[in-house]
TrEMBL record:
<dbReference type="Pfam" id="PF02384">
    <property type="entry name" value="N6_Mtase"/>
</dbReference>
<dbReference type="GO" id="GO:0009307">
    <property type="term" value="P:DNA restriction-modification system"/>
</dbReference>
<dbReference type="GO" id="GO:0032259">
    <property type="term" value="P:methylation"/>
</dbReference>
<keyword id="KW-0680">Restriction system</keyword>
<feature type="domain" description="DNA methylase adenine-specific">
    <location>
        <begin position="289"/>
        <end position="535"/>
    </location>
</feature>
<dbReference type="GO" id="GO:0008170">
    <property type="term" value="F:N-methyltransferase activity"/>
</dbReference>
<dbReference type="GO" id="GO:0003677">
    <property type="term" value="F:DNA binding"/>
</dbReference>
<keyword id="KW-0808">Transferase</keyword>
<protein>
    <recommendedName>
        <fullName>site-specific DNA-methyltransferase (adenine-specific)</fullName>
        <ecNumber>2.1.1.72</ecNumber>
    </recommendedName>
</protein>
<keyword id="KW-0949">S-adenosyl-L-methionine</keyword>
<keyword id="KW-0489">Methyltransferase</keyword>
<dbReference type="InterPro" id="IPR003356">
    <property type="entry name" value="DNA_methylase_A-5"/>
</dbReference>
<dbReference type="InterPro" id="IPR029063">
    <property type="entry name" value="SAM-dependent_MTases_sf"/>
</dbReference>
<dbReference type="GO" id="GO:0009007">
    <property type="term" value="F:site-specific DNA-methyltransferase (adenine-specific) activity"/>
</dbReference>
<dbReference type="InterPro" id="IPR051537">
    <property type="entry name" value="DNA_Adenine_Mtase"/>
</dbReference>
Amino acid sequence: MVKKEEQNDIIQYLLPQLTTIGININQVKVDVTTENTGNKRGDVWVSRLEQKDKKFEENIICLIEAKHKKCNIGDMDWRDAMKQGKEKSIKQNLNYYIVTNCLNEVRYYNSHNDEEITLDGKILTNFVGLDVLIKIQSQVNIDNSDVAHKVNKNVIEFTEAEFRRSLRELEHIYRSAGIKKGDERIDPTVSFVVLKYISEKEAESRTLSRVIQLWDDFSRIVDGTETRDLSSEFITTVSQIWGNDSPHRDNQYKDFKNLVNFPAKLKHNHYSEIYKELNSYHFHGGAKFDLFGTIYEEYATQSKKKEFGEFYTRRHITNMIAKLLLRNERQFRNLKICDPACGTGGFLTEAFKVLNINYTTNNQMNNDVLTQIQNNTFWGYDNDPKSVARTKLNMFLVGDGHNHIYENDSLVGWNNNVKWKEEEFDYILANPPMGSYKGDADVNNYTFTNESRYELLFLEQIIKATKPGGGMAIVINDGSLETPSRVNFRKKILENCNISSVISLTKFAFAPYTKEKTYVLFMQKKQVSDVGNIQDFPIWHYIVDYDGYANSDKRFRTKYHDDLAELESKFDGAMQLINLYSSNKGLYSNSKEHYERKVNDRELEEGLWGYKFRFVEMHEVNEGNFYNLLSEKHLRPYVRKSISIDEFENKIGEIYDELITASPSNNGKKEEIKND
C-alpha cells in the first residue's frame, strides 16, 4: 500500500517538478534496476541520454529515492531512503543521491559520508537542472560536499576533515618531540599556519624585505638540496618579522606577533616532517572552516576549550546568521559591517564570504568591488589584543577584509579614532559576552538598563551604533528576553527597533564551551520619527531543536537532525510577508500558513510539542507578560493541568500501593501496613 502511494506521488508531484526545471521526462526511468545495482530498484534515475538510447545507464547522472508525501526529514522512512540511496548510488558509481517526499522536502547527500550537499555555500533544498547535477557529480567526493556553481574557486580548497587528519599526523610528530600535552601543541600549530599563510600572501604581492626567508624558501632544505638547520631558519624568520630589534618589524603582520611561538623541543627533523604535512595546503582563501576552532577542538583540554569558548562562536552558527542578515545584499553598494565584540572574527569572516558569494552569483563582483569589501567594509573591535590578532588572521585567511580590526573596549564610550561611534554601521552582528560586568564603563551613562551585565550593555551600544534603518543580528541569552525585572529593557528595545525575528538556538549550540540557552534577535533600527512607537506587525519565531550536530558536548555531525536548512528556506519569505503586513493584511492572512507549522510526527516522538515556527502577533507581547520575547513562551507554552482533590488522593493511593508492593520487606503485610 505504501509503495503504491509512493508511486502515485512520484507521478503526481515529482515528475512534474523535474519537467519544470527542464529535465526531459524521456531522460527519466522510474522504479527500475540497472546492470550495476542488480536486483536493487532505483525510484527515479536521471540520465544525460534518453530512455531509448543503449547507453542510458552509462550516462546516469542522478538517483532520486522518493518517499510518500507525508514523510518528514529524519523519520524512519526518510532514513530508509537514505540507506537505500547510498547503497544504490555507490553501486551506480554516483557520488551523491537525492531523497524527497515528492512534495516539499528535497535533500542531496554525499554517497561517501551522507553529508548534506551545498551549492555555492547554501544547502540544496530544491530540484536543479541537468547542468547543475553534472557539476554535483563531478565535484563531490569523500572530502567535499560543497559544489561551486556560480562562484569561482581561484584556489584549491580543503575540508575540515582533511585538515583534522593532518592535525592527527602532527600529533605523532609532537609526541616524538616530547610535546605530549594537547594544550602545548596549539601554539606551534598556529605558528606554522601563520608562517605558511604569510608566504602565500607575499607570493601574491611582496611587501616584506627579500632578506627575510619565507616558507617556500625552505623547500630546498626539506628536500635535501641545501644543508641547513630548519629550526634555526624558522626562528630567524620569526625574529626578522616580529623581533623587537628587527628593522623589518613594522609590517602588515605585526599584530600576529603574539600568535607565533615555537617550542625549543622541536628540532630540524620535526620541522621537516611538519613542513611536509602542511605544505600541500593553501591557507589564504583555501579553508572553508575556522582553522583556529579546529586546532583548539583537536588539541585543547576541557579547561582550555572553556577559555577559548569565551571568544569563539561556531562557524555553522555564524554562517547561518550572516546569510540571513545579508540575504538582500545582492547588488553592490558601499556598506559598513561591524562586530563590536569580534573574538576570533567568526561573524566578520562569514559575512565577508556571504557578501562575496552574493555579489559573485549576481554578476556584481569585479576588482573594484573586491577591493572595496577587502578594505572598507568590515570593522571589528575587541579589548583583548590576542582576539584582535586572531580576527585579523582569520580575515586574512578568507581573503582579507582585515584593515579595520582594532583593540577597543566597545562599552567604554565612543572612539571616533577607530570609527566606533553612533549611527555608523549598516549592519552589526555579534555574540557579545554574557554575565556580570566589572569593567571601566560607567553604567550610569546607559539609558536602557542600570544593570552591570555585558549582554544588556552591549545590546544598547549596538543599537546606538547602527544607522537608522540598519540591520542587526545579535545572540542574546534567555534571561534578557523573559526576566520580569528587565521588562523596561525589552520595552526600550521595542521602542528603538523593529524586531522581525527571534531564532531560538539549541542549548548545545556552543557546547562544550557553554550550554547557556541563547537566541538570535534580528532587528532593524527605527527611523528617528518612529522612535518610541512599538511595531504593530508580528515577529516570526523559529525554534532550532537540532543544528546538524549532536545535542551533547561531543558535537559530532548528525545525518538526520538539522533544522538550519528549513530555517534558511523559510526565513526570507517570512520576512517578506512581515513587510506586507501593514499594507496588505489580507495577503498576510492568506499566506501566513506557509510560514507556520506545528511539530511533525517525528518531532512529537522525540518529545517536542507545539509549534516549530510561527508568527507571534504584537498583542501577544505586552505589559501583561512583561514583553516576553522568548520563543518557547509563544510557541511551546507550558500547559498547567489541574486535578480535583479526589483525583489527587486517588493518585497518591496508587503510588502508595506501588511502593508497598515493590518493597522487599512487605512479605504480604500490605493491608497491615496500610491500616497502620
